[in-house]
Amino acid sequence: MLRVIRLENTGEIENAPLMQSTDDIERIERYRQGDADALGELVECYRRPLFGFILRMTDGHDDADEVFQEVWFRVIRNLDRYRDSRFLSWLFKIAHNLIIDRIRRRKPEISMDDAETVDRLTFECGNQLPSPAETLEAQDLHQRIKKAVGTLPTEQREVFLMRMEADLPFKDIAKIQNTSINTALARMTYALDKLRKVLADDFVQLQGV
Amino acid sequence: MNRNKTERLLLLRQSGEITGRQQRRLDAALAQHPEWLTEAPTVDALKALWSDAAAENTRAPSMGVIHEIERFAVTECRRHTRRASSSMLLFRHAYLMPAYATAAVLILSAIVFFVDLSPRVQQPVYQTVSMDATDAGFETALQQIDTSMLDLLDNFATAENPQEVKLDALVMQLMIMEDS
Fold it and tell me: How far is it, in rounded angstroms, from Cα A6 to Cα A2?
């Protein structure tokens, strides 16, 4: 049985810190040499940020499970080709590609760089914002944040989640989205701007933190 | 610098990617508009709040998925190890290739050496005989050549490249006599 199960049984699972790249490389090397536990350690280490990202980018838990599994299958199959210095960025790149494929299969291709589309989606997002009644019904601030993030356009939500979940640098995010660092920064700015509007009162509190 | 650019620089600073030059530009912009800093989204606080919100049980992938990944990892790992072993075996043989090649060259050399010793390619053996200018003396000289030498001379005369065979005057005369 892989290490991931042992970690879960010992309660270490929630506190597993994000590893440095050197640890990733060492574990990848161990796996290449026949130590299957090393892959379990990698899965465990990046389970939370990766699954958190996938969950917020897909339609529910089952969908997220499927994408999460496929990401790791692809990682395992292509581990020999891994050359990136940052393993987490590679994981997110694979996840991004899978999610984009799913979105494209569901609806016609859209680009957030198209100003018209941005306007349309911003308008739609505005309409999807929770009403005051819904806001009152929300259990707490966490729920409101999650709901607000769910209303963001795909690319903006993606940038926001990559920053929030995995603390990926904008340089890596830009590479993952196959765009410029300025576009990635702009998407983050738009996302924060929208969240600020949606969570108006909460943001006042946040700024006092 | 406008507000949008300032906010982007703030994001870069927050992510630790800001360069010295960008930092100076940001400082200059914030010195002019200090309110931009306080009004900007508090990313760090939002991040802390997000992490807090994210710490819920439903964020974990199902155990079935984890088991499936484990199973696949073990299978692929074994396959990879087997492939690596095969490669190593091939590498070991490749390492001995120079030795194999040397042995093959030695064997071939030995074969060529023994073939070189065969009578077909052996150098002609000359036998010196005394002879007179008269026919009688020539006959006497012929009688002194032993039978094996005559066979050998005959072989050279029927060789594929007789012009390459160097024969002395005695042999040439013998051939002329046989033809006539």
Answer: 7
3-state percent breakdown (helix, strand, coil) of chain B, nearest 5: 75, 0, 25
- Residue B110 to residue A33: CA distance in whole angstroms: 45
Contacts of B46 in chain A (CB under 8 A): 145, 164, 192, 195, 206
Neighbours of B50 (CB within 10 A): 21
**ipTM score for this prediction:** 0.71
Mean pLDDT lowest among B7-11, B88-92, B161-165, B169-173: B161-165
Closest partner residue to A40 (CB to CB) among B70, B76, B78 is B70
For B90-108, letters b (16+ CB in 10 Å) and e give: eeeeeeeeeeeeeeeeeee
Q: What is the rounded end-to-end Cα distance, in angstroms, of chain B?
A: 118
Chain A nearest-CA distance from B96, in A, is 24
| Å between A183 CA and nearest CA of chain B | 10
* C-alpha distance from B53 to closest chain A C-alpha (Å): 5
Express each pLDDT in A197-207 by its tens digit: 877 776 666 65
Mutate to test the interface with A, among B49, B58, B75, B83 (most CBs of A within 10 A): B49
How far apart (Å, rounded) are the C-alpha atoms in residues A75 and A122? Answer: 35
Distance (Å) of CA A81 to CA A74, A77, B78, B81: 11, 9, 18, 16
